[in-house]
Task: structure prediction
Amino acid sequence: MTNKYLALLLSVILLALISCSGSGDLTRIKSDVLKDKIAGGWAGKMIGVTYGAPTEFRAQGRTYEDSIKWKPSDIRGSLWQDDIYVQLSFLMAMDKYGMDAPAKKFQEMFALAGFPLWHANMQARKNYHDSIFAPLSGSPEYNIHADDIDFQIESDYIGFMCPGMPATAAKIADRIGRIMNYGDGVYGGIFVAALYSEAFLESDISLIIEKALISIPPESDYHKAISDVILLHRQYPSDWRAAWMQLEEKWGDVDICGAGSHFNIDAKLNGAYIVMGLLYGEGDPLRTLEISTRCGQDSDCNPSNAMAVLGVINGFSGLPAEMQDGIKAIADSTFIHTSYTFNTAVESTYKYALDLIGRSGGKTSGSRILIRKEVPSAPELEISFPDLVFDRNISVFDKKEWKFRGKWEIHGAASGGNNQRPGQAMVAGNSGDELTLEFYGTGISLEGNWYRDGGRADVYLDGKLHRTIDTYYDYAGQQHTESIWHAVNLQPGDHTVRLVVRGEKRTESAGTKVYVTAATIFRGGEKKNETYKFTFEQ
Result:
């Protein structure tokens, strides 16, 4: 054998060895298969969000037991869903500024967009206009929604462009997720992206979940909640409701945003519902959709994530025919607030996937793609609210608790806006108008209104200026009843909050008014999830 043929033979043998999926190095996938799986992920997202949309938050602290009516033509509704158009704004930011653009550019893209936002996203938009940028915009200090679901429902595109590359997905997610989240809120986005990343090269759902968990700190509450679902599934393999009841008992009241109510938009509980749908659905699309929806709370987002995992595993071509037809019918229709259609989103994601595969040491040659399979690793542990347990709500009309100085008046909920809840506030707009509240605890949130005539105020904590707040909000046609100021993770003890109206406003505001509706008080102590034992553990 000549040296030429010997060298060729050795090259073929070496390529075969490194292309073996069991080598942990390079894994082979055909280009059309990769694109089909990306399309399946986007399709699953669209199917799931429309399946669960009519039930969103109709079941809080309970399972949804009414009938679920869905047909493939309902997928058209995905063209108007925030689960999709928000993350497509991040994809548009990549197109405009490059994949490696700083987080501020991504924050700018969605902060200046014309679509409405809620919770952590809404606070991140407000922070942008108040010159508070990532990563501070998602931090507990400046965003009381730090652990909420927002990034978890918007990180799909990251996982779709990182096939078999969970470490790359986690790196991108850590940068983008800090625009609106921190700690468990960021971990939720990393976990979901890792689910998709692992699903490109693995079909066993249980194994996909276990591998994705490696991407988040095992000490985090998010990791613990998902691990609990795995444990409960093993204990009740055929009874998801029995598992749900115990999960609810342990994790149902963890949300800081909805403190004192059954409302829960926390990333970890809703992330647990994604996993419940996947495990108990056993790969069946309709059963996966139904269970993740009936778990309740944010029940359009959770089936959307669960179904997208199945979409990546099976590819678009592996979805039920009627679901494929529903997607094909709108494949060239533009998602609202974006320049993308389903088809162009798939093409763009595929393009970025090839780029990232190359950056990670993979190779592309014609229809053959070699992916360097990454070993995931968890980031350092972050805890948003380590010593915060709900204590009580105090209405601003509880005159025993509040002290007023100046001209404060009773004001009913203003008309207009897209997100106003019924209720009343005390309002003042003159310089020097002030209110004072004394409380015992480890944290406080002042609730009020962000309105188009909102003005500025100084907030003092225990006699020291803590922050100057600006209560103006008139973005994308929205106004909000929201936390206008908060301080958390305080030392346990007696504290005093004093709010002083400045009588000042930003240029675009119609007034100098400051609206206050209530205060939420938190105390230290052990959280229920830290002490609760499942019945089979007792």
In short: Residues 1-23, 413-422 have pLDDT under 50 and may be disordered. The CA atoms of residues 242 and 320 lie 29 Å apart. The domain at 17-56+71-372 is CATH 1.10.4080.10 (ADP-ribosylglycohydrolase fold).
